[in-house]
Write a structure and sequence with these properties.
By secondary structure, the chain is an all-beta fold. It contains one helix and 45 strands. The chain has a domain at 361-529: Ribonuclease Inhibitor (Leucine-rich repeat, LRR (right-handed beta-alpha superhelix)). It has a ten-stranded mixed β-sheet, with no helix packed on it. Strands 1, 2, 3, 5, 6, 8, 10 and 12 form an eight-stranded mixed β-sheet that branches.
Length: 529
């Protein structure tokens, strides 16, 4: 096979794709075919044994690395054997290989990048050899089945002391990565950022007295985590009153919680991502002492149904039993849940307020709301019906992105701007009416809405961004009430507009028939009253 400039690989041998790292040194890396690893998601399957050398055009190349995302998204990949010649495993090399069960690393591996095994849900055991000297962050994020982490006894940089099923940086006593069977040793000083991220099998954790630092999202998305205990002798953190949380003692800041957390009365702030991904958390009470709640503190809490803010809290409230956290001074809803009823006194819905709230089914946004923040309802995959009140003027970027079951949508008459990716990947959406007041429709605003078959574009729309209807493969009927619209040529990418009908005002038919992308429509007809 000849090298193709648009491809990630330079050649392939025996079903493995390679890129040349150095022609002078005759070294190559394992890669993927296509421009992105998503182009051929199952190009590697079953068992793959990476050789130490490969011959191509009478040259013998040494295989020294695995490229970024080389095996990314290969759902049918089960076992990988990495040759001793491999020195580097680049970032996300095996990302989202959901059925990958085992990886045998050669003794030559020295560098392991970030997120290498992220999302490998069936990966159960990993062992690293004596040569490993650098391990990135989030290496095992989302490896929900991971049971054992092992390091060769001869490694001078990392260890898994006492069979703790964790990777520890020996010189600093820093825990880099853990799994569901990890027991944190008594001499650990620091727990790294994202060390247990996505470790769904983890049910209980004990923080020893020696720990003085815990990284961001160290226990985020641990869905089954039910018990958190901090050693009473720890001088930096505590789990006062058996609250099942980690609290920074001096500041009163709650660092990490779980499904059984009861927030103590003297907690002053809730850290960003403190409960992120705690999908079995059903109820939470915010005491009067809390004056700050970080971003995504309750993101992806899929089962959260009841939220109560103490009536004496001076910063937040849950007025009228709305099951939400509202920033009182700004009337801004900052955290919502499946049981939220948005009060008619709220003026804003904050960024990521309902992010990943899978059990939210329907939503009515009152006329008092003027702004829907970025990603406010992103990944609310169970949301099927939305009514946006007429007071809303702007819908933020990705506001309803990946609301996969959204089938009924009413956009309020006051909306002026629809952000980029605002309704992207809303697979169940079939009909959209963009009101007359809307002037701006952002990049990929409705991209990937694969069942969308009918769109009405209002009379004041002046700009439609690239990919606005990209991948709307079912689209057959478009009505555009505007006389003149500035559009990117690719707004209908992957849409067979030659089989679709465009309806415009009688006075605009001629101009639409001459301009791109409208002239590609199979039929262009005048609107009838």
């Amino acid at each position: 096979m000849l090298a193709v400039a648009a491809m990630a690989h330079d050649f392939d041998v025996d079903g493995i794709y390679y890129t040349v790292r150095s022609e002078s040194e005759l070294t190559v890396a394992v890669s993927f075919q296509g421009e992105s690893y998503r182009d051929y998601p199952n190009e590697y399957a079953g068992t793959v044994a990476i050789p130490e050398t490969v011959k191509y055009k009478n040259k013998n190349y040494s295989v020294v690395a695995i490229d970024n995302c080389a095996f990314g998204g290969c759902d049918n990949l089960n076992y990988v054997f990495i040759a001793n010649s491999i020195r580097v495993i680049d970032d996300a090399a095996f990302v989202f290989c959901r059925h990958l069960q085992s990886v045998t690393c050669g003794n030559g591996v020295e560098v392991i990048g970030n997120d290498v095994f992220c999302g490998c849900e069936q990966l159960s055991s990993v062992s690293f050899g004596v040569s490993v000297r650098s391990i990135g962050t989030g290496v095992f994020a989302g490896c929900i089945g991971l049971e054992h982490l092992l390091i060769s006894g001869g490694n001078t940089i990392y260890d898994a002391r006492g069979g703790c099923d964790a990777i520890i940086e020996t010189a600093t006593n820093k825990l880099i990565a853990g799994c569901k069977n990890t027991i944190i040793p008594d001499d650990i000083v620091e727990i790294s950022e994202a060390a247990f991220f996505g470790c769904n099998g983890l049910t209980a954790i004990n923080i020893p007295a020696s720990v003085t630092a815990i990284g961001f999202e160290a226990f985020a998305k641990c869905e089954s985590l039910a018990s958190i205990v901090v050693d009473p002798k720890n001088r930096i953190y505590d789990s006062r009153k058996n609250c099942n949380a980690i609290i920074e003692t001096a500041s009163g800041r709650l660092i990490a919680g779980c499904m059984n957390t009861v927030i103590p009365e003297n907690v002053t702030s809730i850290n960003a991502s403190a409960f992120y991904g705690s999908s079995n958390l059903t109820s939470i009470t915010i005491p009067a002492s809390v004056t700050d709640i970080g971003n995504d503190a309750f993101g992806r809490c899929a089962s959260l149904q009841n939220i109560t803010v103490a009536s004496a809290n001076a910063v937040y409230d849950s007025r009228n039993g709305c099951n939400a956290i509202i920033e009182t001074s700004r009337d801004r809803l900052v955290v919502g849940c499946a049981g939220t009823v948005v009060p008619n006194t709220v003026s804003q819905i904050g960024e990521r307020a309902f992010f990943g709230c899978k059990k939210l089914k329907s939503l009515q946004i009152p006329n008092s709301v003027t702004e829907i923040g970025e990603s406010a309802f992103e990944d609310c995959v169970g949301l099927s019906s939305v009514v946006i009140g007429d007071g809303v003027t702007s819908i933020g970027d990705v506001a309803f992105g990946r609301c996969e079951q959204l089938s009924s949508l009413r956009i309020g008459e006051g909306v002026v701007s629809i952000g980029q990716y605002a309704f992207s990947a809303c697979f169940a959406l079939k009909n959209v009416v963009i009101p007359n007041q809307v002037g701006f429709v952002g990049l990929c605003a409705f991209g990937g809405c694969e069942n969308l078959n009918s769109v009405t574009i209002g009379s004041r729309v002046s700009f439609i961004g690239g990919g606005a209807f990209d991948g709307c493969v079912a689209l057959t009927d478009v009505s555009c009430l505007a006389e003149d619209v500035i559009v990117e040529d690719d707004i209908f990418d992957d849409v067979n507009v030659s089989a679709a009908t465009l309806h415009v005002s009688a006075s605009a038919v001629k101009s639409y028939r001459k301009s791109s992308p409208w002239k590609q429509f199979g039929k262009i007809e005048a609107l009838t009253n």
